[in-house]
Amino acid sequence: MALSKIFTIRYYAKNTGFFLVIFYFFFGIVPGGQLLSYHHTLIKGFTGSMDFLALVCLAWLLYNLKCIAFVVNVLSTKEHTFLYGTLGLLDGVTKWRTWLWLHMNLYAPVLIYSCIAAGIAIQLHFYPSAVIIGLFNIIMLIAPLWLYDHKMKHPGTVSFLARWQQWLNKTIRKSLWALYGYELLNNNIKSLAIAKVVSGLVVIATCSLMGTYDERFILVGFLVCILAQVILIYNHRRFDDLYLSLLPQLPVPVWKRYLQTGLLYLVLLLPESILLAYKVWQQAAPAHLIMLVATGVSVLMLLRSLLYFPRMDQDRYFRWVLIIIVSLLFLGLARLYWYGIILLQVPAYTIFYNRYYRYEAPLEKVD
Q1: DSSP letter at 252?
Q2: What is d(CA 34, CA 39) in angstroms, rounded to the nearest whole number?
Q3: All residues at 6 or more sequence positions from 295 whose CB lies less than 8 Å from its CB, including other chains
Q4: pTM reported for the whole predicted model
Q5: Which of 30, 57, 65, 348 is deepest in the core (most CB within 10 A)?
Q6: Residue 125 DSSP code
Q7: Hey, how many other C-beta atoms are within 10 angstroms of the C-beta on 281?
Q8: For 112-142, b where at least 16 C-beta lie within 10 A, e where not — what string?
Q9: Do the Cβ atoms of 222 and 295 come closer than 8 Å?
């Protein structure tokens, strides 16, 4: 009971908002009478496609890492050092049973849903998917137990994430234009991972739902992927305001800074671009793939340029996001793809050129 208060109850209380969003997405947006058919179709979709199943497993892995990080953080706090004198004394089967029960309580939402998914996969004769789901969840339950036991035996050790950050910072030389990318990998990896998982699911769903190949259908899916990145672009301004406010004083031409920003966003879109190319490379013309990537980078460049207007708050920013995406959808329907890229790049570079040196970070964001 004491462990439940320390770990389980505190975990679900701390992540109430997260679970409300997940509950709304999986249950709130679906009418009650269609709830079972909705989830049956969803499970049929990802158990019938190995690519889709791989992304679902990745999402489950991220949730499991969230559970592990919570337990490790609790064990690392000063007020819970007494746990080393209680849990640390457990041995043998009792120790592993205690850690397994504790972790299962946190991993329960995924465990329950995955068991249902495995049952439906067997019913639909998707036996390889059922085996993968079963083995995956066994690993998700057993692997953390070793980590918890290692933490109890070595309480002063640095976490894997901290070691990853240290290795990244010491090993790789950072260019100024790529600093925000390293910031995402270091301190905002959760937001980056969520954006990439959502984008991956969108790409797979788009390619799965498309009958005959149509680049306009692919463009719509890729624009939805861009929507998953917009909050990362909005936070780019805050990062520059806080840490790179002196960057404009360096003797670098504006056109070069613009190209460097575009290169950063090209790297940011690489996972979706590679996955999309893998899914449609037998059907899509190379020009179509280049067009999609160029459109994505151009949208992000325009959104970043708009943030050089000091009064561009979050509400105005998302209004512009909607206007830009809707405009591109109409141009895509008319197959005016390259005109759309030009219509994005011209204002993006014009705003960037005229506002870059005139932009001043608001004082409240710098303090």
Answers
A1: -
A2: 9
A3: 219, 222, 223, 328, 337, 340, 341, 344
A4: 0.68
A5: 348
A6: T
A7: 10
A8: eebeebbebbbeeebeebbebbeebbeebbe
A9: yes
Task: Answer yes or no: are the C-beta atoms of 272 and 198 closer than 8 Å.
Answer: no
Residues 267 and 341 occupy one common structural domain: yes
Q: What percent of the chain has pLDDT over 90?
A: 32
Specify the length of the chain in residues.
367
Query: Measured between alpha carbons, how far is 99 from 90 in angstroms, rounded to an integer?
Result: 10
Q: Is residue 355 part of a domain?
A: yes
Residues 141 and 180 in one domain: no
Of the pLDDT bands very low, low, confident and very high (cuts 50, 70, 90), residue 159 is low
User: Long-range contacts for 199-202 (Cβ within 8 Å, ≥24 apart)?
Assistant: 199/225, 199/228, 199/229, 199/271, 199/272, 200/55, 200/58, 200/271, 200/272, 200/275, 201/52, 201/55, 201/59, 202/228
What secondary structure does DSSP assign to 197-229, as a single string? HHHHHHHHHHHHH-SS--HHHHHHHHHHHHHTT
Instruction: State mean pLDDT over 18-29.
Output: 74
Residues 271 and 358 in one domain: yes
Domains held by the chain: number:
2
pLDDT of residue 279: 84
Q: Are residues 126 and 200 in the same domain?
A: no
Domain that holds residue 15: 2-157
Region 196-215 average pLDDT:
83
Report d(CA 213, CA 224) in Å as an integer. 18
Tell me the C-alpha distance between 234 and 236, whole Å: 5
Q: Are residues 40 and 130 in the same domain?
A: yes
Nearest to 45 by CA among 111, 127, 126, 132: 126
Whether 166 is in a domain gets the answer: no
Distance CA 108, CA 15 (A): 14
d(C-alpha 40, C-alpha 90), whole Å: 42
Do 180 and 86 have their domain in common? no
Same domain for 144 and 29, yes or no, is yes
189 and 78 co-located in one domain: no
